[in-house]
Amino acid sequence: MKKIIAMLLALVMVLGLAACATKTEPAQPEETTPAETETTPATTEETAPAETETEEPAATEATGSVYYLNFKPEADEAWQKLAATYTEQTGVPVKVVTAASGTYDTTLAAELDKSSAPTLFQCGNQGAINSYGDYCYPFDGTAIMDQMTTDAFNLKGEDGQTLAIGYCYEAFGIIVNKALLEKAGHSIDEITNFESLKAVADDIHARADELGFDAFSSAGLEGSSSWRFSGHLANMPLYYEFRDDGVTAQPATITGAYLNNFKNIWDLYTTDSATTGAALATATGDESEAEFGEGKAAFYQNGSWEYSNLTGTFGMNPDDLAMIPIYCGVDGEEEAGLCAGTENCWAINNEASEEDIQATIDFLVWVVTSDEGTTMLAQEFGPCPFKDAKEPENVFFQDANKYTADGKYVVTWAFNWTPAVDDWRAAVVDALTQYSAGTGDWSAVETAFVQGWATQYAKENA
User: Fold this and answer.
1) Share of the chain above pLDDT 90, in %
2) Which of 28-37, 369-378, 413-422 has the lowest mean pLDDT?
3) Is-contact 292 177, C-beta < 8 A?
4) Which pairing describes strands 170-177 and 336-341: parallel, antiparallel, or unpaired?
5) Is 391 part of a structural domain of the chain?
6) Are 372 and 94 in contact (CB under 8 A)?
7) 443 with 305, same domain?
8) For residue 48, is it within any domain?
9) SS3 assignment, position 326
10) Which residues are CB-contacts of 49 (< 8 A; sequence separation ≥ 6)?
11) CA 75 to each of CA 55, 100, 107: distance values in angstroms, whole numbers, following the listed order
């Protein structure tokens, strides 16, 4: 009799544990609207007998699927191919949808509200965690976390749980065509601060007809390009203000102490260029990239992610490429390095089914350990914080590393603390557009920057 009772108790305990294991937590809606494309693999699994240490056991049959809402249009083709390869190898459906440039937040919000919501999405900064943290499945203890070499780029919730993981880090600055500089009688070594940058750019612009190229590619304010300035260029005044004030968390207000420096570099971009004034409102990112890639401009503000396009699509010689810091006239900027950090952070939807969550984890582990996945990440995204990551052949990362090795300070990504990022940036772009067209003045840019921050912070934290 005692034996029977013991067996019954054991059975109850097993059933209880199984019930706990299948529990999922609710999540809340999010941002971003997706732009579709698809390839679908999904893996299913179960807890198999003590197998590998790298992962939660995979099932013999694929019962889950993956839906990745990608936010980088320039990486869409690479993700589509990789997803198709994974599905071919595993039978797990992986759908990749890419949000149109500048629409990720609204796309994500719309997609998360659907019954077939993304299982994998981007949550690239603390503001996004504040907005979408309720949707984020904790990575702690998962197989993908076991593959990481650092948690420096990961984002955590208030309780310390890891809600998004940084899968690569990037650098941005001013990309330089050294061959064109030499053709104009200059050298990259001349440029060590804003004053020297302006001197070289002014000279090239003044002789553009003679040289056959201008100084800067277009600083377009159309949606596919404007993020370079409302996000990346805006990082410069934010970084220096936060550095001076010792800011270590998202501030409720900012002072705009370095907005004159922002104006310095913006005016240079939009004066020493073939595209100026009202034409900037419709100038696109593709146009700016092509101007530089086709040798029509010596300088182009963008990031390390541009390397594959410039050397592949445009056939530029890597030896002719370099990246220098964004100089804007700040005291001591001769000691600055490149802007480095990441907004590339994966989050898993905790409202997805248990099978789809596991399928998504399995897919990520394959991406960061397989030859196909690590090759794609190295080519498209550069250095990645995973044990099996490949070294990227990207001269821009070599430049970033050299600045650091030479003792230059890294300009970190202060814009990751922007509240309601899309709304704040949209107001800054609108003010810049009017200022550049001559229909508004710089004070409107300052208002959008400073007051806009306080307004969006208050809304987000109401």
Assistant:
1) 72
2) 28-37
3) yes
4) antiparallel
5) no
6) no
7) yes
8) yes
9) coil
10) 57
11) 27, 12, 17
Q: What span, in angstroms and rounded, lies between the C-alpha atoms of 454 and 462?
A: 12
Half-sphere exposure of 250 (CA within 13 A, CB side): 20
Pair 282, 409 in one domain: yes
What are residue 291's phi and psi, to 5 degrees?
A: -60, -45
CA distance 254 to 449: 8
How far is Cα 348 from Cα 357, in angstroms, rounded to an integer?
Answer: 7
Which residue range forms the structural domain that includes residue 449? 171-340+399-460
Q: Which residues pair with 67 in a beta bridge?
A: 95
Of 184, 188, 185, the residue nearest 175 (C-alpha): 188
Q: Which of 327, 354, 381 corresponds to the end of one domain?
A: 381
CATH of the domain at 357: 3.40.190.10
Q: Are residues 165 and 185 in the same domain?
A: no
Do 303 and 323 have their domain in common?
yes
Concatenate the DSSP letters of all residues of 37-97 into one string: ------------SS--SSSSPPPSS----EEEEE--GGGHHHHHHHHHHHHHHH---EEEE
As a whole number of angstroms, the distance between CA 231 and CA 425 comes to 7
Residues 181 and 101 in one domain: no
pTM: 0.67
Q: Looking at the structure, tell me whether residues 132 and 195 fall in a common domain.
A: no
pLDDT, tens digit (0-9, with 9 covering 90-100), for 231-284: 999 999 999 999 999 997 889 999 999 999 999 999 999 999 999 999 999 999
Q: pLDDT (tens digit, 9 = 90+) per residue, 289-323?
A: 999 999 999 999 999 989 989 999 999 999 999 99
Count how many Cα atoms sit within 13 Å of the Cα of residue 255 in the half-sphere of its side chain.
10
If one counts the domains in the chain, the total is 2
What is the b/e burial string over 61-78, where b = at least 16 CB atoms within 10 angstroms of the residue's CB? Answer: ebbbbbbbbbbbbbbbeb
pLDDT digits (tens, 9 = 90+) for 160-199: 999 999 999 889 999 999 999 999 999 999 999 999 999 9
One domain for residues 205 and 156: no
Q: What is the CA radius of gyration of the chain?
A: 24
CB-CB neighbours of 109 under 10 Å = 16
Label each residue of 149-185 as H, E or C.
CCCCCCEECCCCCEEEEECCCEEEEEEEEHHHHHHCC
**Do residues 198 and 143 share a domain?**
no
- Residue 368's alpha-carbon distances to 167, 171, 363, 372, in angstroms, are 9, 20, 9, 9
Burial of 231 (0-12, 13-18, 19+ CB in 10 A): buried
